[in-house]
Amino acid sequence: MNQLVQAGYPVVRACAVLDLPRSSYYYEAVGESAELRDQIRAVAQAHPLYGSRRVTAMLRREPYKLTINRKSVRRVMKAEGLLRRRRRRVPRTTQSNHGLRCYPNLIKGREVTRPNEVWVADITYIRLRQAFVYLAIVLDVYTRAVRGWCLGRHPDEALSLEALRMALAVATPEVHHSDQGVQYAATGYVALLESHGVRVSMSARHSPHDNGYAERFMRTVKEEEVDLSDYRTFAEARQEIGQFIIEVYNRKRVHSSLGYLTPVEFEEAHRQVQTPLIGP
Question: What is the pTM of this model?
Fold first, then answer.
């Protein structure tokens, strides 16, 4: 608000634009010092798609370690014009008219209780300046960690297989879930899963929300990385998206469903709880 007033806007008009009462201009809430506003602004600008809930969680972590409530953070973000409206995305259609075998949904209504119990896989497109490229991922449902990924020029079986091979080099799931796309029903893909003793699960046709965990990740990577970038080449896109997945999403991005831990932190906490103490 102060920025609008300093730019010459009357207080009444500035408050109307920001949907705030006039009294908010003359009132500085307890604890919302200039230093705190700077810290909130720094976190919000570093993570443009974060809402007040995640900004609050970040401020409670290193290097800030603040004792702060979400209401104060939201108030400052609203006054500074830092709240964002998320755009709705149309779900990607899947090529499921392929004549290959499809498998029943083994995870609908299932409560996942441990790492590598269920993996989900998906493919989405990413637009470069002159062409489209495609991202395939394999994600662990319990920890939300991306186990494998691949960026390629074609949405084919080779793309999904590369992501799966990367994931299987780390661990082996009990169940692998995907849509009924030809990339996941392909003979080579299913054979690789079955050779590792993995049970194959698929969403019902025309039911993209049955694969909601993968869909949410794809929305995150687009909103927090792709939409904020302007990749000039395929190599640049691969490097930047890979860095986001490995360094930001898996290691730095907190998840409300994980108690505001990162996937790596959450998996480590689970491992420590499950590891029995060894006596002297």
Answer: 0.68
